[in-house]
Specification:
21 strands, 2 domains, FAD/NAD(P)-binding domain, five-stranded parallel β-sheet, 14 helices, 497 residues, 30% helix, alpha/beta, binds NADP nicotinamide-adenine-dinucleotide phosphate
Length: 497
Amino acid sequence: MRVIIVGAGFGGIAAAIELRRHGFDDVTLLEAAPELGGTWHYNTYPGSACDVPSHFYSYSYAQRRDWSRLCSPQPEILDYLRGIAADFDIQRRIVTGAKVTACEWDDAACQWTVRTEDGTERTAAAVVLATGQLNQPAMPRIDGLDQFTGHTFHSARWDHDYDLRGKRVAVIGTGASAVQFVPEIAKQAAQLTVFQRSGNWFLPRRNRAYPAVLKALFQLVPGLQEARRQFLFRYMESITAAIRHPSTVGWLGRLRAAVFMRWQLRDREVRRKAWPDYTFGCKRVLFSSAFLPALQRKNVELVNEPIARMTPDGPETADGIRHVVDCVIYGTGFKTNDFMFPMEITGTAGRSLREVWAAGAHAHLGITVPGFPSMFILYGPNTNTSGGSIIFYLEAQAGYLRQALCRARDTGAAAIDVRAEVEAASDREVQARFAGTAWTQCDSWYRDGAGRIVANWPGYMREYAQLTRTLAPAQYQLIHRAEETDQPEPVRAEQST
Ligand code: NAP
């Protein structure tokens, strides 16, 4: 069974390892970038690091005991992924510079055709779309954006050739990326103006280097590494509890954040501007002990007046002030609702995934979509986490898709397709589980244009692990090739439980 994986980031590599371990030898990863890494290839901005502790932001089966810091910097994470790809014999299966433009299911041949930008076509029995939710930089909707005559770039495509020293710099956006790079560039720029649309809730993250003695203990004391992972797992589940129960656990989370922020924000004016006006946990809670102090530096100004338009000199705010700058850095996040688009995905009977998702993206467990046989999405709809490690989810998804493909392989089927009623029911359940949670209490990138929350998993990591642990055969139908059954069309086999 030939499997094509689109994307060689944490997700694609997790899927490749899982499939290889279970006897799928014909696995190819197509990666648009010149090397593996996904988000950790692209996000090289100053201060880029994970904000989930590395002992948990890593594969469970490839643990490192010598992480340099609580949350490793981007080069260390990229090195880790390179090492994994080499150790698990994945590297040689990655085709870099291969940007996939279309995946098309052929009903007669019961296979996928995968096209890349250079015109190459490859066929496969299964496709795994591992492009993630956070891979296409989003530019803000601001009038006259292209009027600005100075230098610009997005945080996910950092221009390392542009020297910020002595420059007047504007940063638009104050999300998880900006809070990491603003403290770093504040040390270089002559003047830094940070444009904030919404304030954030902050929890501390000092990110100190692990002392040598602690690293040695992780190496030498049996069980310590596992105990650390267990502790981190529980800590992160408690953040989800705070989001799920805003008026009880969430109230405690808010109190913890408020005390920390009050202590950090000594400047009354900055405090007033930076303070969030929505429920704790509705948007991503940010972990930084450096951002709020950076906003109070003499060379930094926080502007929370909305940007009315972009002028040739810089952003002009609604109060009529023109902020003259040399460079604008967009920390404005990603086109999260686009998932794998603009890739054209065509399933059975020529149906396009774009049409199927016209009213919002949805997939069974975020992984399978009816009418798209043997197509699996990693980090798909409703699988983002606000209080966990995405690596945990990716591993669960890799295990699940591997079970689906084993089921097809072991039964001699050409493909496997989730039943429409199963997917519809699981989507209803997911949406219902948001009721009463903090996620519903503000606007955020977790929602699509119609307001439906399509990014996040509404529950705990342990629930997702439980639901994906064992694939239920009854939830799927097997597709057999027509010639195998003397039928003119491919045959969908009914399944017994
Ligand atoms: P983001 O969280 O979507 O932040 C985008 C920022 O741009 C927000 O502050 C947003 O304001 C602002 N914005 C958008 N349009 C604007 C406009 N017209 N005017 C002013 N401000 C505007 O993007 P991100 O910071 O790149 O992070 C995206 C996600 O990536 C995170 O939530 C996280 O899951 C992940 N991430 C993780 C890490 C890590 O683990 N280390 C680091 C970075 C990112 P609003 O809040 O009002 O929309």
